[in-house]
Amino acid sequence: MDFGLTPEQEMIRQTARKIAQEVIKPRSAELDETGVYPEDIYQVFKETGLLGLNFPEEYGGSGAGTLGLGLAVEEVAKVDNACALILLLTKLSTSAIMRFGTEEQKRKYGQGTALGEIRGAFGLTEPGAGSDSANIQTKAEKDGDFYRITGTKHWISGANVADFFLIATKTDLRAGSKGFTVFVVDKDTPGFRVGNSDKKMGVRGVPTCELIFDEAKVPAANIIGEVNNGFKAIMWNLNSVRPIVAARGLGAAEGALQYAVDYARQRVTFQKPIIEHQAIQMMIADVAMRVEASRWLTYNACQTVDDGHADREHAHILSMAKAFSTETAVMAADTAVQILGGNGYMMDHPVERYYRDARQLTIVEGTSQVQRMIITKSIIDDMLNWK
Length: 387
Ligand SMILES: Cc1cc2nc3c(=O)[nH]c(=O)nc-3n(C[C@H](O)[C@H](O)[C@H](O)COP(=O)(O)OP(=O)(O)OC[C@H]3O[C@@H](n4cnc5c(N)ncnc54)[C@H](O)[C@@H]3O)c2cc1C
What we know:
This protein is of the alpha+beta class. It contains 13 helices and ten strands.
């Protein structure tokens, strides 16, 4: 049974598949090794319209929505998770803007991103606040028509190439989640700078960096939504993007499984290809079951966001897809390493990279534990709608 994709969605899938297989796949090992952002691949995404998938037509996009973006991300993640992250960032840096921003903000940052004129990044995490995001300490103090932002964000994906940053701050440090205000900060803002890139385990083609705000002078006109009501916008942003992280997991799992199956057909032990050993077959079946389940959870979560439900009442659907698909990616890559044996551990084959990349996915945008907290909360609050 098919999920019922439209001809347009099928076309997006084919376009992304072609780019992934012909342009990205030959570059993946090199991106991982050098850790240099692939500007040329970003340009291909721009020329083929993939940067605008998630944006309405009136803002320079193609109106393909979260599901359209998810399909493209899945195809790219089959071969390279850093390049899949480049596509994800188009949504992570703009979802709150497109939902809560002014017309001017949507035009400047949303349309600009869709057309590939500017790039954004998303800054929530701080050295002292990750899962406990309500505890951020970056503060914004009013100064006439401006705000002065002071604090540090860390591990911000794509910061080194970003032109603007969607930033969570506190305008009331004592009010917890009720003191949040979200700003969009341009890269040339006085008092703001991007720090050095981090040395990390995987997804190395998109560097992460620190953001340093030293009384950075940001116009009050750059507030997204309302003062002290920004937590809602941040949660909306995270909820909207979780299905796309799930798509990164789904694609990675499919890519790892396919590679392991191809290898198992070729590798001979005890006079037969290892795919004929039952122990190998069991491993393949275990991954295949989870991949299929991930696909349904992911597409359904994408559709849920497209139906306008990136809200608290539907958060568990998005969290289930995110946790399950990303854990499937880790399991699939781990299994692929095992099926390849010693070759799986060597950089001559991509499965060790899939493994390192997949480990990122169960941590970002809410760890697997945080997703389970959200799912359980919805059960306690009786939101599952299973009766
Ligand atoms: C490669 C990479 C890229 C990233 N990109 C971005 C980005 O672009 N923008 C951004 O804002 N952030 C980014 N992050 C940060 C990411 O979102 C955080 O790492 C994540 O939210 C977890 O926070 P933490 O690392 O501080 O872990 P912590 O919050 O310190 O958690 C540590 C461990 O404790 C567990 N834990 C915490 N609280 C609980 C609890 N109540 N119950 C049970 N278990 C709990 C967690 O699940 C985890 O296992 C990135 C991180 C990485 C690694």
